[in-house]
Amino acid sequence: MSMPLGKLVLFTSVMAGGSCTLVYYLIQTFSRASYYQLALEQLRSRPEALEALGSPLNVHYLHLTDKYNFVDIADAQLKIPVSGSKSEGHLYVSSSRDAPFKRWHLQEVVLELKDGQQIPVFKFSGENAAEVKKD
Fold first, then answer.
1. Distances (CA, A) of 85 to 31, 34, 51, 134
2. Does this entry carry the keyword rRNA-binding (predicted)?
């Protein structure tokens, strides 16, 4: 069964537009998530990390095809691209929660610069229990 060229072009355009909309929605969902926001707050509160990157701090879109980025009902693992005037790198974030609809607990945040230098930003301990409200 063949389809006229006009219908094929229209169908392909609708599918491509829908796919772009879905990708945009997924990126926005990640960037509004509490574990994402708390990780950026932790980065902004670490002078040595900000000094290594340089100001202003720029946060870039997540690469959804990166296998490191993973979120399920109890765990979240992200690789957030960041840059500044001096350097660029990735903010590696690990978060978890005890059960659905419970608070997220930031487990670890590490800034890795493009030269391989790693700067610890946050590490979970009982004393610095960083909790964020449910999404």
1. 22, 27, 10, 34
2. no
CA nearest 78: which of 6, 21, 26, 10?
Answer: 26
* Look-up of token digits 């169908």: 11
Please list, in sequence order, all residues whose beta carbon lies within 8 angstroms of the beta carbon of residue 127, skipping any fewer than 6 positions away: none
Of the listed ranges 2-6, 23-27, 61-65, 105-109, the least confidently predicted one is 23-27
Helix, strand or coil, per DSSP, at residue 63: coil
pLDDT digits (tens, 9 = 90+) for 63-94: 878 999 988 889 999 999 999 999 999 999 99
> Could you give the CA distance from residue 60 to residue 16 in angstroms, rounded to a whole number?
23
Q: For residue 104, give the 3-state DSSP assignment.
A: strand
| Model confidence pLDDT, tens digit, residues 25-40 | 665 555 578 889 999 9
Residue 66 — left, alpha, or beta (φ > 0 → left; ψ -120 to 50 → alpha)?
Answer: beta
32's tokens: 């509004």
